[in-house]
Amino acid sequence: MTDLLTTGFRNAPYWWDAAPLGEPAGGALAHSYDVVVVGSGYTGLRAALTLARAGRSVAVFDRERPGYGASRRNAGFLGRTLKKSYIELKASKGADYAAAIYRDLVAAYESTLDFIQEEGIDCHAVRCGRLIAATSPAHHALLDRELAGMKADLGLPYSMLPRERLREEMASDLYHGGAVIPDLGSLHPGLYHRGLMERALAAGVAIFGSREVMAIGQIGRANERFQITTAGGQTRARDVIVATNGYTPKSLPWHARRLIPFVGYMAATETLPPALLAKQLPHRRTVIDSNLDIDFFRPAPDSPRLLFGGATANGLEDPAAIAGLLHGRLRRALPDLADVKLSHVWTGQCAGTFDMMPHIGRHDGLWYGMGYNFAGVPMGSFFGLKIAQKILGLPDGATAFEQDTFPTLPLYRGDPWFLPLAMRWFAWKDAKLARRNLHQG
Ligand SMILES: Cc1cc2nc3c(=O)[nH]c(=O)nc-3n(C[C@H](O)[C@H](O)[C@H](O)COP(=O)(O)OP(=O)(O)OC[C@H]3O[C@@H](n4cnc5c(N)ncnc54)[C@H](O)[C@@H]3O)c2cc1C
Description:
Layout: E1 5-10, H1 15-18, E2 32-38, H2 42-53, E3 58-61, E4 77-78, H3 86-93, H4 95-119, E5 130-133, H5 137-154, E6 159-161, E7 178-181, E8 185-186, H6 189-202, E9 206-208, E10 213-218, E11 226-230, E12 233-242, H7 253-256, E13 259-269, H8 274-280, E14 286-289, E15 296-299, E16 306-309, H9 319-333, E17 342-353, E18 359-363, E19 366-370, H10 376-391, H11 419-440
Parallel strand pairs: 1-17, 2-3, 2-12, 3-9, 5-14, 12-19
Antiparallel strand pairs: 4-8, 5-7, 6-7, 10-11, 11-12, 13-16, 13-17, 14-15, 15-16, 18-19
């Protein structure tokens, strides 16, 4: 297995090479803040920045070094879709609701790109386009239906790619063509997070790393509604934002009961000859396959490597074993890369939800934004902004994602014992769809 790894192999996110985790000096803990934020990812920092610029005193606490969570570990795909497809949502909740949700997804996507541009955050944000590679003829047909519906109702562009033209997009014969969404984007998640953190610090946010929030109690005074106990002392706040997504601890039981934490896996290849890389993804688009349990690929934005991931929630922890599993996925999709080694392998915590929807709202006075189901780059940024706007009392804080319910299961406490079964159910659904088409034609 070790022959798959380069000599300088790192069991750490590739993104940390350019954006290593730091430890900002948070300074002395104040007696109280207007707002305390738990979690220093995109959700927490975007909220903190917006609030600080509006004149609020803000402290952000992270259990680890700031940016330790998924925000500096993800694949950097910037999209405007959910695990719950537009068609499914329209069928289950009606056309108006589905359109409102998908309009907000577009707003999340566009506002994240606009923010990066306005702030001048140098994080390789581009509208590179995305290939969704169909894993069967039936998946191809379903993709066409789904994207046609979104084009008709929301004006979102796409084009279908037949199997015989797949090599125009990807050096693979594995897939049954796919769909190209020309205006979806990508970025360097580490540099985006670092840019956000620098701006939050410059706006006066106090960011404390290695400071777990252990308890949040209500004290009920007008300007000091909450007492927050951290690993480094106590403070008070008028508002508290829970922004812990896949890292949500059991000490926040209401939230933990509503999230399904799962591990995402990624790897980076060694540097590749530029021509070999260009042959794999000639248009430098991001690629995901059409399965529920996705494999995904992209070129690194800042060096000639391929970054890829998949095999979500497979339960492996040993980096060499993860490398072996991911390399198998790489070879299967892009056989030209069968002999390349991996320079980085890493994991990160994501959060699913029982209705497969992200959730934003307030419970027991605590604001929260979470459950991004693998779409937290735009959605975390968006929910962070929306929560800040709500705290500021601005009408812009409204979003179609606010719901009356944030479902859980009886007796569920945040340990997703059923995850292997859920992944098998995903695989079964994918296979069933693929078979249906074979029988039909
Ligand atoms: C491998 C992988 C690939 C992904 N790819 C994509 C992608 O391509 N596109 C996309 O849109 N999304 C992707 N995601 C999802 C996305 O990264 C996340 O949804 C997003 O980063 C969540 O941001 P956040 O700020 O809500 O939480 P995080 O960035 O996860 O931050 C949560 C923080 O809370 C802290 N914390 C937890 N408990 C406490 C406590 N008690 N006290 C203090 N701090 C605490 C943690 O230490 C952590 O730093 C991916 C995720 C993974 C893991």
